[in-house]
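User: What would this chain look like folded?
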Amino acid sequence: QVQLVESGGGLVQPGGSLGLSCAASGIIVSQYVMGWYRQAPGKQREWVASITVGSSGSTNYADSVKGRFTISRDNAKNTVNLQMSGLEPEDTAVYYCHAVLFTRNLWGKGTLVTVSS
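Assistant: Here's the prediction, encoded as structure tokens.
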């Protein structure tokens, strides 16, 4: 069964850090462009970060998270991670894992991140 399962969401104070993980089954993450998106309440889903195919992969980030978030891939565990630091209330959202290969798009069900004091 092909699926992406996110974990690691929760409540964190402003300025804090949190790590998200996306466990993939049925696909090999190094063969897909893997990414993270987020959707804040009342807003459209937006792209956050992505990592390209290959043994290492190059990374790209939305301007709003550049310098604060780091996407990485663990090929041995077949996971994609998002390490977030310097979190702000504006980062509050449901975070979704995404995989794309040509016309094949896969989404996880999301994990909620709440940044609040």
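The longest strand covers residues 93-101. If you want, I can go into more detail on any region.
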